[in-house]
Give the backbone structure.
Amino acid sequence: MTPPGPVGDRFRRFRERLAAEGGDRPRVSDDRPRTASGAAATSGGDHPDDTGTAASSSRGDLTPRRSTEAGGRQGRQGRRGRRRGGGEELRVPEAEFTSYYGRPVLKGPVWKWDIAAYLFTGGLAAGSSLLAAGGQLTGRPALRRAGRVTALAAVSASAVFLVKDLGRPARFHHMLRVAKPTSPMSMGTWILTAYGPAAGLAAIAEAAGVLPRHGLLGLAGRALPPIGHAAGLLAAGTAPALATYTGVLLADTAVPSWHEAYPELPVIFAGSALASGAGVGLLAAPPAQAGPARRMAVAGAALELYGAHRVETRLGLLSEPYRLGRPGRLLRAGRLLTVGGVTGALLGRRSRVVGALSGTALLAASVLTRFGIFYGGVASARDPQYTVVPQRERVEARRNGMDLPADRAVPPAV
């Protein structure tokens, strides 16, 4: 037999040294089941010599490594078996709707308080024009005058708030280059363009009584009343669109609590506009001429309270932003003031003081309602649950309606 070469001698000495030092080396835990004799059982016959006897110890540190590998395979097989066999199943923790990489799911509205004020002044202008038209048609000059002057002041304030939000007045002019019926913003621009000059002419016509009767000014004084009459009716005809388009504008966004309330927001804004116009009439006109204002107050309060109740009860989870926090406090206070204003208007028909207090309450209620709706939508955009949960519910309802199995349901895109 050929004597072993130098390489064979070195390997033989290395193996003997490992065998001699094997007792002093730390042993690795063997998780394999053992037989009645205490020997470790094999793990499915991974190696013909891996029998757990003293022969295995002659391989030195190879035995613990192979035993550990076998134990790892057994653990993985056991875990798979538990999942398939219906045992305890590992679950991913429920998602917490806090943020997405530190950001909300939706980009919140960039609008500030001036847009909420714009919502109020636009509704006030519309309600005042309707009040002025009522006074004009029923022969109540105090009611007509108060409505026309207030409408001009309110639409002027609306223009200021809108330009402040746009940043440059030229941007409003650029909106007039196109007319897009499917865009509430485009239609709102044209509504303001038609309403503003008509409300301005109607208010200027109220100055006809202080102009001289002769000369050019006298001619203008005689021409202004019929012009103001036509302009007042034109402004009143445009007022319903002005009062409701802002509700359509909010509902056309992706903000959850605005978008889902698309049937109610125009109703709320129409009722708030009527109530604010009635408040102007109760403040400015004597009780003998405030009949149309009282009727407007009742109609406006009914619409506003009905719409607010629907918003706070019909939307499910998306109703929460209108009930909680600052929006909830504003809307509750608005309802109380609306009820108080209407009650005072009906019970205090002969008292100028009670009428003035009722008018003030209705105006304050309109302000609180517009700001409450505005801040409720902003709150729903900041909290991801108001975006994710309704989306998952819609996907689940669509899957159940199509009778699809669970594994074919399309997950929501967040």
Remarks:
- Confidence is low (pLDDT under 50) at residues 28-87, 404-414.
- The CA atoms of residues 86 and 399 lie 26 Å apart.
